[in-house]
Design goal:
The chain is an all-alpha fold and 458 residues long. The chain contains 24 helices and no strands. The longest helix has 39 residues, at 26-64.
C-alpha cells in the first residue's frame, strides 16, 4: 500500500510540475537553452578526450592492478603518511576536472583503497593542477595562486583524514572483510615496473590530449601545447608496446586495429580529434578480439561508463539550467546579478536589489557578511561545473564585479573539486551519507579558508 501511495504522489507531482511549467517566461526558456548548450559543450570538449581515457584507466585498475597492491598503499592498514602523501599530490600529474577524476576514484576505491586516501585523491585530482595554479597566480594575483596551492594540498589530506575518522567503524569492517576475501596470491602477479609503464602510457594520453592552450604564445607551456598530439601519439605507441610485451596481445592484431589512427591523422591533420576518436574505437575492438583478460578490461570499462556517464549528463543539464554555461551572461534560471551581489565585499549591491539603503540595514549584517559571502561562494562553487582552467576567467569576471578576495579563494577551493554532476556520481559509489559528509567538509573548509584569507588581505 505504501508503495502505491509513493507512486501516486510521484505521478501527481509530475503532473503538477508539467501543468504549472512557466514555459512563457523568457528566463525559463533561456535556462533550458543554456542547459543544452552546456551539455553540448561538455559532450564535444570533455567526453571523448577526458572521460573515455579515464574510463579505460578505471577499467584497467579493476583488471590489472592487484587488490593487494591497492590495499598495501591505499588500504585502511596502509602507512598513513605514504597513502595521503601520494593521494594529495596526484593532481599535479593528472590535471583533470571534477568529473574526469570520478572513474579513477571509483576504480581505486572499489579495488580496496581506504576511504580517507580515496577521498584525498578525489579532491586533489582536479584541485592541484599545476597549470591551473600558475594561471591563477598570473591572472588573479600571486596571493590567490599561493593560497590555492597550499589550500588544495592541505584540504585533500585534512578532508581525507576526517572522512576516515568519521566512518572509522565502517572502514575497519571493510578492511577486515577484504582480508578474508583476498589472499596474498593474485593473478596480476607481474613486475611493478610493467604495471607502472602500462598506466603511464594511458595517463600520458589523458594528460596531453587535454593540455589547454596557455595565455602566452611562447614559453615552455606553449611548446608542450604545440606538441601535445605528438606526445599523445608517443604514449599511444608505448601503450601498444605494453599490450604486446606484457599482455601477450598478438602484434598483427595491434597493427590491424591501430593502423587507421595514423591514416586519419594524415587525412585530417587540422582535426587531430578525429584520429583520437578512431584510436578509442580501435582500442574497443582490440580488447574485444584479444585475450580473455583484455575482454575483462573492456567489460570493466563499460561498467564504469554505464554507471557514471548518465549521471554526469543529468548533472550537467541541471548545472546549465540553474547557473548557465561558461561565458554566458545572466542566462541561467538564477540571475547572475544575485550571485554577484551575494559574494561582494559589501552588502550594498544586495540591499540595492531589495530597494534598501545602508542606513536601513541592521547592524549585525556587517558582522555576518564576511561569513555569509564565503559560505555562499563555497556553496555556489560546489554546485557549479568548472572544466579544467575555466574557473580562472570566470572568477576574473566576478572579481571585476566586486567579489572579495576571501570568497574568491573559497570558490577556487570548492569549485574545481566539486560540482552537481560530481556529487551525483559520488553518491552512486559512496552512498548519500558519505557524499553529503564529503561535500559538507569541502564547503565548510573552503568557507573557513576564505574567511582567514580575506582577513589577511584586509
Amino acid at each position: 500500500m505504501r508503495g502505491e501511495i509513493k507512486t501516486g504522489m510521484a505521478l501527481l507531482l509530475g503532473f503538477l510540475g508539467l501543468y504549472f511549467l512557466p514555459i512563457e517566461a523568457a528566463r525559463f526558456r533561456g535556462a533550458i537553452i543554456e542547459a543544452l548548450i552546456l551539455a553540448q559543450w561538455y559532450a564535444r570538449e570533455h567526453v571523448l578526450l577526458c572521460l573515455v581515457p579515464a574510463f579505460f584507466i578505471a577499467g584497467a585498475i579493476g583488471v590489472f592492478v592487484s587488490q593487494q597492491a591497492v590495499m598495501k598503499y591505499f588500504g585502511a592498514q596502509a602507512k598513513k603518511w605514504l597513502a595521503y602523501s601520494v593521494a594529495s599530490v596526484s593532481g599535479t600529474v593528472l590535471a583533470v576536472c571534477s568529473c574526469t577524476v570520478l572513474p579513477l576514484f571509483g576504480g581505486i576505491y572499489m579495488r580496496g583503497a581506504g576511504l580517507g586516501p580515496a577521498v584525498a585523491f578525489l579532491y586533489s585530482g582536479p584541485a592541484i593542477n599545476v597549470l591551473a595554479i600558475v594561471l591563477t597566480a598570473r591572472v588573479l594575483g600571486w596571493q590567490l595562486g599561493l593560497g590555492r596551492a597550499i589550500g588544495a594540498v592541505v584540504f585533500s589530506i585534512v578532508i581525507g583524514l576526517l572522512m576516515h575518522l568519521i566512518f572509522r567503524k565502517e572502514e575497519q569492517t571493510k578492511a577486515a572483510l577484504a582480508q578474508t576475501l583476498y589472499t596474498e596470491t593474485d593473478e596480476n602477479d607481474r613486475p611493478l615496473w610493467q604495471t607502472v609503464l602500462h598506466f603511464s602510457s594511458m595517463v600520458g594520453i589523458l594528460v596531453f590530449a587535454n593540455w589547454s592552450r596557455p595565455e602566452q604564445t611562447s614559453g615552455f607551456w606553449y611548446v608542450i601545447f604545440q606538441l601535445r598530439w605528438l606526445l599523445v601519439s608517443g604514449f599511444g605507441l608505448l601503450l601498444s608496446f605494453c599490450l604486446w610485451r606484457f599482455f601477450l596481445v598478438k602484434p598483427w592484431l595491434i597493427a590491424a586495429c591501430f593502423l587507421p589512427v595514423p591514416a586519419m591523422a594524415l587525412m585530417f591533420p587540422a582535426h587531430p580529434g578525429a584520429a583520437f576518436t578512431v584510436g578509442a574505437i580501435s582500442l574497443v575492438v582490440l580488447t574485444s578480439l584479444a585475450t580473455p583478460q583484455m575482454r575483462e578490461w573492456r567489460d570493466q570499462t563499460w561498467g564504469f561508463t554505464k554507471q557514471i556517464l548518465p549521471l554526469l549528463l543529468v548533472g550537467i543539464l541541471a548545472a546549465g539550467f540553474f547557473l548557465g554555461s561558461p561565458g554566458s551572461v545572466d542566462a541561467g534560471i538564477i540571475p547572475s546579478k544575485w550571485i554577484e551581489a551575494l559574494v561582494g565585499d559589501s552588502p550594498l549591491p544586495l540591499l540595492t536589489l531589495f530597494g534598501a539603503t545602508t542606513e536601513s540595514a541592521p547592524h549585525w549584517l556587517g558582522w555576518v557578511w564576511p561569513l555569509w559571502t564565503n559560505f555562499f561562494a563555497s556553496l555556489t562553487g560546489a554546485l557549479m561545473y568548472f572544466a579544467t582552467l575555466t574557473e580562472v576567467p570566470i572568477l576574473r569576471g566576478l572579481l571585476d564585479s566586486g567579489m572579495g578576495q576571501g570568497p574568491a579563494l573559497a570558490l577556487l577551493l570548492a569549485g574545481p573539486a566539486l560540482s552537481l554532476p560530481n556529487m551525483l556520481v559520488i553518491n552512486s559509489v559512496l552512498g548519500p551519507k558519505k557524499t553529503l559528509t564529503f561535500s559538507a567538509l569541502v564547503v565548510v573548509m573552503a568557507t573557513l579558508s576564505g574567511l582567514i584569507f580575506g582577513a589577511l588581505q584586509s
